[in-house]
Design goal:
Largest sheet: 6 strands, antiparallel
Number of strands: 6
Distance between the termini: 112 Å
CATH architecture: 2-Layer Sandwich
Structural class: alpha+beta
Strand content: 35-45%
Order of helices and strands: HEHEEEEEH
CATH topology: TATA-Binding Protein
Number of helices: 3
Radius of gyration: 24 Å
Number of domains: 1
Length: about 160
């Protein structure tokens, strides 16, 4: 009986230990991939995230944001680092583009080897930012103001 319950408990612990900590999100867009990529870059900046890198050929963007207000009872704890990464891919069907996002949070510690990051559960701030970028870049842009009418044929000018 003890062996059975111990093996069940071990199985439950082993099954939960490998669960991913980062969160993934995806959304479809009706705008072309290059425009969606530009939108993602603009929205990352608009939400006050710092863009780390971008790849204009593969339509990838990475960004981070520091949380200096987080506190831990560990003298080596420095700050939380929220990270976002976006991949803009060609879509299928009605969706011209698919935007994939991954959000993650890391605790940064100061050690003898230098800064060390340990991944934690993704903070709500990072999840909400990823979802906001996808939501804003999935919408078709609103039509702009009507173009000014072209000048008509010139009438008789001053004589």
């Amino acid at each position: 009986m003890r062996r059975t319950s111990a093996s069940v408990l071990f199985g439950l612990i082993a099954g939960c230990a490998g669960a991913p900590i980062a969160n993934s999100f995806a959304g479809n867009s009706t705008i072309p991939a290059p425009d969606a990529f530009t939108c993602v870059r603009d929205q990352v900046k608009a939400l006050d995230w710092i863009q780390d890198s971008y790849d204009k050929d593969d339509f990838r963007v990475t960004a981070h944001k520091y949380d200096w207000n987080a506190r831990r009872p560990d003298v080596q704890f420095r700050r939380l680092v929220h990270r976002l990464s976006f991949d803009v891919d060609p879509g299928s069907g009605d969706a011209l583009t698919t935007i994939h996002a991954q959000a993650a949070t890391y605790a940064e510690y100061t050690t003898q080897r230098g800064p060390t990051e340990v991944q934690e559960r993704t903070a709500e701030e990072a999840k909400q930012a990823a979802q906001a970028v996808i939501r804003r870049c999935s919408e078709a842009p609103a039509p702009g103001p009507a173009a000014p009418a072209a000048p008509g044929p010139a009438g008789p000018g001053p004589q």
